[in-house]
Amino acid sequence: MDLNRNEEDLYLEDKGMDFEDSEQWKDNNEVEEEEREEVGAMDLASDEDEPVEPADKVSESGKEGYFTYKLENYSKITQNKIASPWRDVGGYKWRFLIFPRGNQTKTHLSLYLECGGPVQNLRDPWAAHIFSQSAKFSLQCIHQEDPSKSIVKNAEHRFTDNESDWGFKEFIKLDVLLRPENSFLHEDCVTFGAQVTLVADAALETNFFSYDSRKETGYVGLKNQGATCYMNSLLQTLFHLGEFRRAVYRMPITISSESAHPEGLTYALQRIFYDLQYSPTVVKTKKLTESFGWDNTDAFTQHDVQELNRILCDALEEKMKKEANQQNTIQMLFEGKLLNYIKCIHVPYESTRVESFYDLSLNVRGCADIYESFEKYTEVEIMEGDNKYRAEGYEELQEAKKGVKFLSLPPVLQLHLKRFEYDFARDMMVKVNDKFKFYETVDLNRFVDRTAAQEQNIDVENDDYVYVLHSVLVHVGDVHGGHYYAFIRPKPLSDPSVWFKFDDETVLRADKTQAVDDNFGVGGDEDESPERKIGNEGFGPLPPPKLKQSMVRRFVNAYMLQYVRVDKVDQVLSPLSDDDVPIHLREQFEREKEEEAIRKKERMEAHLYCTVAVATEANVLAHKDLDLIGLEGMDTFKLRKTSTLKDLKMLLCSKKLVKDISFVRLWKCSKSHRNTLRPQCLLANGRDDQMITDTNESVYNGVYMRVPYTGRDSLLDNTRLFVFVEDLLVMDGRSVRAKVLNEKIPTGVHSVALNNDEVFLFFKYYTPFPAPTLSVVGKQLMKLRDTIGDALAVAKEFVGIDEDESVFIFEEKLGRKIPRLNDMSRNLVSCELKHGDIIVIQKVPPAASDERVIALQRAGGRYLPTFLDYVEFLWHRVEVEVRNAKEPLGPAITVELSSNDSYESFRRRIANRIDPSLDPEYIRFYPPQLYSPGPRMYPLTPEERKHNLNGILHLDSTRYPLPRVLYYERTRYPSSDYDHKEEVLVTYYEKIEGDRNHESKPQWNNGGEHQELVEEEEDKERGIKSETTHFAHLKHFSILISREGTFQDLLNLVRKYLALEESIPLRLLEVKEHLIIRIISPDTALRFPTYPHDRLEVRVERIPSEELEGDTRDTVLVPVHHICKENRYVRLPELFGIPFVMRVASCGEPVGQLLHRVGEYLKAKEEEIKSWKLYEIRDGLFSSLDDMEKVWVPEPLSDDRGEFSVSLGLEHKDENAKRWQSPFPKSFMDKPLKIRG
Questions:
Q1: Residue numbers annotated as active site
Q2: Is the backbone peptide bond immediately before 1082 cis, with ω within 30 degrees of 0?
Q3: Residue 1215: pLDDT band by 50, 70, 90 thresholds?
Q4: Taking the CB of residue 455, how many other CB atoms lie within 10 A of it?
């Protein structure tokens, strides 16, 4: 048995019906145990006259009952099916349907439960015939000796007058039933039991087949576009706020100049609400998301429903504010006010700020219910210790009380439950599934400070903040994804027990259990559903708890609550009448429905029509590529497939595409794999009375037709006709040939008829200057007996070439093999030329040494001397996107290249496109990264540069489609130098001496301000990036150096590069990003990173004068790094800023003194230094140095390599710290939620 099939499939199979799914349903009903059998039985009409007896046991609520039936004389039964007497459970009639010898099976007994509808009464006699009731039930075959060994099977079903029975075709095997030792058959009797629980539709886990939400509930659902369940739930909630819906209807609509229909967010939301109010079927939300500016990526990205609520309401409020006469309903419904205050304890100072809110985020963790969350929201925080408050007018930090007071609460209170929070221990977001109670009615009067409200001139004297629950938005799943649906109570006061579950397309009836109790979360002693409690009242053998349901309940809980103030219910939830929908909106909506009906009809009749794409002489002359006609620029018409050739000619004449239909030939064109066209044969065989779809495409007038391309695109275009219009009044088809061959010009040069010995040919001319150009020069009907020489003479006449001039002549074919036609005496029929074939001629090309060729190549052009070279280039032509590697998302240039181009060839062409004056030797290329946009970390290697362009583009052969993009970098040195030298990234660092202002400019030489400006310009030209902080000057640049050199060689190059005197003392530090790794001895040989994308980073530091003038014998150099304070929770700190080294006494220094020296080095103010903190960093771990009096002793360098084993970390906030940000877009899963429309 296939456990993936749902109950509807099993039911129809049991009925002997074949059913093929036409829609992908959500599978919420997996089989819970391996004994689950097929469900369904034959419908039996209920007997109205048969008495109804009460069930054996009934719960206090009356919604659950248990009854049994003893089937006697089993061995003597001859009937195929037996119905037990009716029993009353929950006001409905129930009975067993038993098939003693099986229903469509010979090996099992079949057992079903049938519902006969409500127990008939005189008041509503019709109710027995039309009913709908959902139930969960278990059917049992009772063991006569030990009831615990009874066979029990569980099911659930929505019983209706059309589907009144449900059960199991293979309930128990007959051989098991008939064995006496099994004790199921005792004294020729079998006893069956049934436990039935009546539930709301929403409690069922099964899908509904042919369910009509509008008919069953009066409401309809919203179509899920992929992951828009959160949006659907929110829209249903807002729709049921009558005042909100009424306000949306009142908003004005705008019609753009480009469209005759209204557009924008307002109109799309009005349409959604109108359809929810009147549509009989599911409402689509595509137009609404398009008005948001969303694409398919947004539709398949699940976002937070509270975030969408805020963004949507903000967008609507902005639109309402722009309208002079529009009431701000958003503010009226959702705005509350609170007071943030900080009050000093020991001094008379208080700071207050009034804020508005449209929703509240309440804590779930640590709170038992909604009241505890409000208490936590308003609890007072004591600011003391390190958290003291700086009060205005007082120098010392003050102890203070900080808190929030509610000044007023809105008519519609939207509560967001903080189910998602960051877990610092696991360094990840987690979902809080803790139990959190909320109530159908809440009294929040005690949380509103009316005294504070009066002080702020807010009148709340007559407001009663008692709220009734209107809707519950539920989230199923975890932090990585899930599903949203909503429970809504439309009439919380007049009909408080009626809830509805809005789950995307489906709307179901629900009750308080499903809407409230089941969505508290998990945890606590009371974590047991009411249904499970009822089952313990001793009704009989109960089925075990469903594994799926118990597991899912751990992740199902309320996420947003919407309460309505009791005294505002009538206003906020007032129902809408037809008159509340403006007339202009109704007319517009109905007009769009009519248009949609017309489009639907057209789609249904599409198979009766074909699309005719028409090309004229102008299209042919404008085409400069292979073949004759491109698909763009063609006129298209829609015609019935039964239209005749004359009908099409008349249409073209009415569209002014032809002048006289008597002088027009229409050719059916074949489509090539290049998406280009050639005439193939006369459309409809040239007969005016023949249908345009009837064309003999194999042989016409003795000339074999071209076999059309039958690729995938052609199969998709089987309802399209491509037609070439040959207008004989523009260019007749015979006169040029007659003139060239000195024949008498026939009187029928404009005749539409085609002779049996004629073939329709086109002529093209190719020239390589000033750029390779291929153009159509004419067309002519040639005789099959004509020779190649005759065709050449016609071509020369079209081009205007002298008869004696030497030319090349080719036949243009669809493939790469282009034949050259050298035999002038060969006739056309022997060359197998067909209608629509092309003859190409060109003059003899100049040699490569010709001045024109040299000039063309110097300008970056490509010399293609013959038509054969041109075709070969077209076959290998690729358009490559070229981007700057330093600005990978910046503007790109598109360069047309050949996949056969060598590295040197395409480098020269790309350099010319970037800058005609750019030497190609000073540019190098990076292929794209493997899995993300942007350049690879290292450029093309010498081995990779041996490939042609095709090989370089195929370096990453795992990606499809292959990226046709290259990233370039303009280099300071010839690119060939990088093959045998290494690039070192150098930062020259010079500490600012004295108390200079951090805004002062660096003075590298004694030349004054003018000299500084001149040097800055020179630095830019030499690729030097200068940077000045408040404590140091820096210059960043790169140097090429031989791999066999030493660091002393590097120092010499730096001195020469920056024009530093030999007397200036320097030291070398290896620095990686924000971390100083080691001090480098100049005599050390250069060592470069192993990985090709890594580069050696070195800091050349000028030794400060105070260090040179002082005694450094008993000191140790110690690196000081900047630590990001907000990330101190993780094991490794985030480093930022510019690290530095300072000398510390070998015997150690007090921590407070060290902190003061660091502050002096950074030229910080005394108050700022007091907020800093020092850490010792050792082996990647850092420990706090809190005791300011403790002496911290440094450690000498760890080994001969000069690596620092211990360093200091300075935890502080640096406004100038430059945090790295990726230049590439985030994954679409991290796409921010925005309404861009």
A1: 229, 483
A2: no
A3: low
A4: 12
